[in-house]
Amino acid sequence: MAPTSETLTAARILEATEEVLRRHGPAKATVVDVARALGVSHGSVYRHFRTKAALREAVTERWLDRTSASLSGIAAGDRDPEARLRDWFTALFTAKRHKAGDDPELFATYMVLIGENSAVVDRHIADLTGQLTEIVQDGVGRGVFTSAAPATTARALFDATGRFHDPCYARDWEQPGIETEFDAVVELVLRGLRA
Amino acid sequence: MAPTSETLTAARILEATEEVLRRHGPAKATVVDVARALGVSHGSVYRHFRTKAALREAVTERWLDRTSASLSGIAAGDRDPEARLRDWFTALFTAKRHKAGDDPELFATYMVLIGENSAVVDRHIADLTGQLTEIVQDGVGRGVFTSAAPATTARALFDATGRFHDPCYARDWEQPGIETEFDAVVELVLRGLRA
DNA sequence: CAGCTGACAGATATTGAAATCTGTCAGCTG
DNA sequence: CAGCTGACAGATTTCAATATCTGTCAGCTG
Q1: Does residue B150 share a domain with residue B84?
Q2: What is the CATH number of the domain that holds A176?
Q3: CATH no. for residue B30?
Q4: Contact A160/B160, CB-based, under 8 Å?
Q5: Are residues A101 and A178 in the same domain?
Q6: Are residues A85 and A33 in the same domain?
Q7: Which residues bind DNA (chains A, B) (predicted)?
Q8: B176-189 average pLDDT score
Q9: Is A185 on the interface with B (CB under 8 A)?
């Protein structure tokens, strides 16, 4: 990466770190590599991120937030709650499957980062179940869903569909028949949700 | 382990292999260790198992079969299908949680073995979903469940409850609140199953 | 002669010395 | 003087030599 003379910002460091991770993988990506990519000394990187772990955590958070953001539009709409729920899970599954299938090495890299940063992952899951809670609450309000505790139900929906969004199942996402399994699970939980 | 003068059988080798795995862990357990534990030369072990991988596969299969066997009793009963389903999942979750919690090191060992032997795992899952299919079919026959394709529904039930039996979630099984999450998911899918 | 042994070749794992990396900080530079 | 540099100590990783293991098989033993 060509050293530019722009100010060194956290954003530029994150960009460079993603590139270094893409190139070298999680095991060999070093802070020195990131500094070299930016044309600065590694001491400068430590001015913006206290440790290598903090830098990797920030990269992980950015990656997860991109998924959350793309789903929030579906959750926030005012369409039929059941259709929104179906679309939301389909969008989540499709997004994850493409991330895993299109660039397996990069996905493997992010799986390592996710393993290192469980606090960030927990926040991400709280964010996603929050979106689900919105949909469930809306459905209950309109009388099309039944739920004594929307947040608990939202979490149950998220857990029940884990096979189609949890990275630990990524290898199954290319298997034939996975679509059928997805439809069967979504159908089952939607039936369980209807008023 | 004291060398006995009994005949060397596959069963005795499997027993010794489990012990060696328990003691040394999956990375350091060698065929030579197993032979030493039995007081024979390692060549003798190769008379009963073609390769080290075949030996580890047999150990893995035995371990998984113990779980299947303990559940088949619940599946085969003639009690209320909904109660049987609830009990079956509870028994599966409880068994897995104890295996993981009571001896974490041994459980980690078996997680490595499971990763090495996906064919055995696939057979195990087919076995468990087969038991679920029995219960679903029985429920449909009695008019308490609805399912167009019991085998597909059984698989959906298994997938939807993955968080409470798939080893990749083992670290969550000690978390407070996991019982509540389990109940929420089981309730949700049972509601979806009722006629 | 059925079952076991132990030496062997090639593959894999261990080890420890050398190289690299992380995180700090005194001092340089624009 | 705010931001960057680069040398440094301790921690971690790499690499190549060494040791151990896997799988085979000719021959031993009861």
Answers
A1: yes
A2: 1.10.357.10
A3: 1.10.10.60
A4: yes
A5: yes
A6: no
A7: 30-49
A8: 97
A9: yes
Does residue B2 lie within any of the structural domains?
no
Which bases of chain C are under 7 A from a protein CB atom? 3-7, 14, 20-26
pLDDT of residue B7: 86
- Residue B5 inside a domain? The answer is no
Domain count, chain B: 2
Q: Are residues A16 and A101 in the same domain?
A: no
Tell me the residue range of the domain where B44 lies: 10-48
**Tens of pLDDT, residues B5-43:** 578 899 999 999 999 999 999 999 999 999 999 999 999
Domain identity same for B98 and B157: yes
**Cα gap A139→A168, rounded to integer Å:** 31
Res A2: pLDDT: 39
Tens digits of residue pLDDT in A137-158? 999 999 999 999 999 999 999 9
Size of interface A-B (CB pairs under 8 A): 71
Return the pLDDT at B5.
55
What pLDDT, on the 0 to 100 scale, is given for residue A5? 55
d(CA B101, CA B110): 13
- Residue A40 above 70 pLDDT? yes
Judge whether B170 is closer than 8 Å to chain A, CB to CB: no
- Do B44 and B62 fall into the same domain? no
CB contact set of A177 (below 8 Å; sequence gap of 6+):
none
- Cβ of A44 less than 7 A from strand D: yes
| Any domain includes A184 | yes
Q: With respect to residue B3, please indicate whether it lies within any of the assigned structural domains.
A: no
CA B96 from chain centre, in angstroms, equals 8
Say yes or no for a CB contact (<8 Å) between B188 and A162: no
Rounded (10°) angle between helices A52-76 and A104-116 = 110
Q: Provide the 3-class DSSP secondary structure of residue A142.
A: coil
Query: Choosing among B153, B159, B193, which should be mutated to test the A contact, i.e. which has the most A CBs within 10 A?
Result: B159
> Is there a single domain that holds both residue A112 and residue A162?
yes
Residues 6+ apart with CB under 8 A from B189: A160, A188, A189, A192, B156, B157, B160, B161
In this predicted structure, the answer to whether residue A3 has a pLDDT above a threshold of 50 is no
Instruction: Count CB neighbours of A47 within 10 A.
Output: 11
B142 pLDDT exceeds 50?
yes
